[in-house]
Amino acid sequence: MRLLLIPDPTSPHGEDAFCREIARRAPKRGHQATVQAVPNGPLDATLDMLQATGFALGADTVLINSLQPAALLASAAAGRRTAVRLIDSYASASSLALIEVERLAAKADLLLVPSQHLARIAGAWGPNGAVRLVPYAYDRIRAQQIAVVTMRGQRHKGFQMVASAALNAATRPGFETLLAAVARLRLDCHLNVVGEGPALPALKERTQQLVAAERVSFLGSLSHEKLMEFFRSAKAYLDPCGLEGFPTLALHALSEGCPVIAARSGAVPEIIEHGVNGLLFRPGDPHSLSETVMTLASERGLSLKLIAEGINTVKRHNWDATVEAVFDALEAQA
């Protein structure tokens, strides 16, 4: 199989590890793979450029990492088998945007998704082809020495927490739950909220109403590397929403030795097992969330236990399983 890989231009660290590993391992499966970045410009102009330069004519199958409209439409126009890897559930998308997502997804012959939760969502979009489960892989484990991670966290006063998401209509209820929980805590603590969006002014106002302003900092958008620094120094990463197609930030937090507290919702329970590698709370319940934070803060040895098993969780999300699943899916489609 001649495989053309289209990397995700938003990949952290400036490198699409997914396409890198697929290309590196393709010869062992008897395939040829090349990587071609597609400009992230205006759709019509990009599409015209791709078609004028014979996009995908030398490939049997085009594998696109993330939903990139120009690459998808150009591949379909060239008559090539097209697979798209999705991670986003588009839970925050407007109704019009979701219609466009469904229209584009239906043009792919195969959708690769990292969770059963997202498989159910994508299956409801009615793609022309199949939806196949491909595990999410992450190979940057920084927290190899638990004692070092623990000491680093102790440099910061109080129980430091971090939460990160686009702040919009979809995530606002979860973050309001989080703010209400922080206001309830009888604990020397501080929450750093990373993210921007139209819900930010309302969340700041809500913080003032709850008299929790001194406990909460809104940091705006940060680079992936900077967010990882916050994970390394925090006592907990909080996901109050559980809306993602796959909880990538939860896995990233585990890799940095940061325990995860998340809503028991969406794809979260597929990676976080309560009391084993993280803690779960009832979605929309500030009391449940505050009690869960108190459990982590007060139960001796729990943080170290979650950190240790969290590292094991990340190790299981390795490229071997991911690449094998990708090629199994592509070969079945060929």
Mean pLDDT: 91
User: What is the overall number of helices?
Assistant: 13
Strand content: 15-25%
CATH class assignment of the largest domain: Alpha Beta
For the sheet with most strands, the description reads: 6 strands, parallel
In which order are the strands of the major sheet placed?
A: 2-1-3-4-5-6
- State the helical fraction: 40-55%
Shape: globular
Number of strands: 12
The third-level CATH topology of the largest domain is Rossmann fold
Estimated structural class: alpha/beta
Backbone CA Rg: 21 Å
Order of helices and strands: EHEHEHEHEHEHEHEHEHEHEEHHH
CATH superfamily of the largest domain: Glycogen Phosphorylase B
Task: Explain what you see.
With 334 residues, the chain is α/β, with parallel strands linked by helices. Helix content is 42%, strand content 16%. It contains 13 helices and 12 strands. A 6-stranded parallel β-sheet has the order 2-1-3-4-5-6, with helices on both faces. Helix 10 (248-255) links the parallel strand 10 (236-239) and strand 11. Helix 1 packs across helix 13, helix 2 (43-52) packs parallel to helix 3 and helix 10 (248-255) packs across helix 12 (302-316). The N and C termini lie close together (8 Å).
What's this, in brief?
The protein is of the alpha/beta class and 334 residues long. It has helices at residues 17-25, 43-52, 69-77, 95-105, 116-124, 146-153, 172-184, 200-209, 224-233, 248-255, 286-298, 302-316, 319-333; strands spanning 2-6, 32-35, 61-65, 81-85, 110-113, 130-133, 159-164, 189-194, 216-220, 236-239, 260-263, 279-281.
